[in-house]
Amino acid sequence: MKKIKRVLISVYDKTNLLEIANALSQRGVEILSTGGTARHLRDAGINILDVSDYTGFPEMLEGRVKTLHPKIHGGLLADWDNAEHTAQAETHGVTAIDMVICNLYPFEATVAKPDVTLPEAIENIDIGGPTMIRAAAKNYRHVAVLTQASQYPEIIADLDANDGSLSEERRFALARAAFAHTAHYDAAITAYLTDSDSPLIKGDRRGNQTDGSEPDEFADNLTLRFKKERTLRYGENPHQRAAFYKTEASPGGCAAWANQRSGQPLSFNNLLDLEAALEIVKDFETPACAIIKHNNPCGLATAGTLQDAFTNALECDRTSAFGSIVGLNRKVTLQTANIIREAANAGVKIDAIIAPSYTEKALRALSRVKRRPILEAGSLSATEPVLQIRNITGGVLVQDPDVHDLDPNDLEVVTSCAPTAAEIESLLFAWKACKHVKSNCILLANGTQSVGIGAGQMSRVDAAIIAIRKAGEKAKGAVLASDAYFPFPDGVEIAGEAGIRAIIQPGGSVNDTPVIETADAYGMAMVLTGVRHFRH
Description:
Helix content is 36%, strand content 18%. By secondary structure, the protein is an alpha/beta fold.
């Protein structure tokens, strides 16, 4: 056990600071402090010693140099079990500092401001704080280091239970948290400087060089920064442990940062499906609804109103919609809420709903199902695409999001029959929709309403068979989107037999000629995009 006799306190965030400072002061612990922290403690009637009086050296350079002094860092880094260290400390008047309470300048909050300048950001890079924290954490056998207000109650309890002492196990745990704290802080600085729009940094926010050199899209070293939101009940299955982490700041309307307005805590699978639902409807400018099962849409539609979009999406596959997640891209009114409730009363179980916002009446109506999560994502218009990261054993894969916008003028009509204007509108809807479906994907649409979806099949023919079977009679006269090219004519032949009127696909197969000839044989129009939409 280590008796706490002297503590250095220097914090930006003063949440609950007086609670632990009073507990230490009442135990006769000497408190060293600096600047605003010293004033805060002194104003509360707590006896403190200014660091400048302790070191005999004043704060300088507008506060940039306060604790960077041998008497401070010698007191933090000395191994008091080492006779040589002890002798040197005595020679130079260095005394032990047994605890550091420190948190850092709000760098992330500063750079999150839309009008922040590079000099402002630089000024909010803490130097003395991380140096003290790391020194204390390195020397955890002799020093306890606290970096979060949430740690104060347990430390006070430990001090009360152990006559003002802390165990080595406790100090080690605090050190581990401290290094995680400074690592996250340094990563935030690195990320900002890497992405900065400053003309001093020769690159745009995506890493493209602007000085005439060759582009380098991705950094040589990737540092990921996420903060634990909560532990989840379990992962994809009950035997898997799981937790939810999110970014320090919201990137815009998204499932991770959505405000849960009612319902039970979200599960691992809820979060995955809510993400899928919202990302799909973001892609459409007109009112849109996506109905998600197992990360795939089982129904998707756009319409003049949100309630019509929901109704049309549901008609695609009411059976699969049981136990689904609903995503909407407009404020939900009572009229839309009532349509959703009618579907639920008719046997369609909806597990969660996510939308930009809700009227109060709509929220009350939907919240009558007490356990169903209702999430409010906020404005979707401000959302910027972010890099996609996928884990593999021993590494991660990073890519740009699939945000390719298809210009109708870029469509290449390759059949004798050209699509009508109405068919082109439907083809473009189906093409945009199919990129959100697991590959291999075949999606059928009438107008801007999906009528059959074949998802995640190893064979494109099987995907076509499933989509047509799901559509039933609605396949006749529908259009078809394929996320990748047809390797053989068989998938097109199946579509022709079902009465499909037009097909959109990337093209590029060695068998494009017989594929096109098959479409011609059935009187179908076919357009090529030159772009693939695989989603693994």
